[in-house]
Amino acid sequence: MIIEKKENYTLISSDENSFSEFILSFLKREKEFKKVHLVLLISDEINIKKEEFSLFLKSFKKKKNTSFVIVSNNVNSDDVPENFNIVPTLTEAEDIIEMEAIERELGF
Q: What average pLDDT does range 57-61 have in this prediction?
């Protein structure tokens, strides 16, 4: 797992060979990311099933005043809950973080 601190969020990229290795690495360190906007970049090299994305739901629900976005081309956003942020590009993830920050400032 590669962790990069960006200006407005923390980017976590997968360098593992399988999704199970990646999720285990992430869950071991999850508490470190409690108070930061978080973007998970899942490599196209990792074969991930749409059901496996549900393993992130618990982490997503714990994020109160911060954003949690997953970047992956391997899942259709219609296959996951509506409020669960999965996008195909890093640029879209950054846009979601910005939009959610504005919504929080406006009290939505």
A: 69
Nearest to 62 by CA among 89, 102, 35: 35
Query: Where are the alpha helices (H) located in 17-108, listed in sequence order?
Result: 19-29, 57-62, 90-106
Q: Cα–Cα distance between 48 and 27 in angstroms, integer?
A: 17
Q: What is the pTM of this model?
A: 0.84
Task: Identify the sign of the CA torsion 64, 104, 35, 23.
Answer: positive
DSSP element (H, E) containing 38:
strand 38-41
- Cβ atoms 9, 94 nearer than 8 A: yes
| Backbone torsions φ then ψ of 12, nearest 5 degrees | -115, 120
Rounded to the nearest 5 percent, the helix, strand and coil shares of the chain are 45, 20, 40
The stretch 53-69 carries a mean pLDDT of: 76
Judge whether 1 and 25 are in contact, CB under 8 Å: yes
Q: Give the span between the Cα atoms of 80 and 85, in whole angstroms.
A: 9
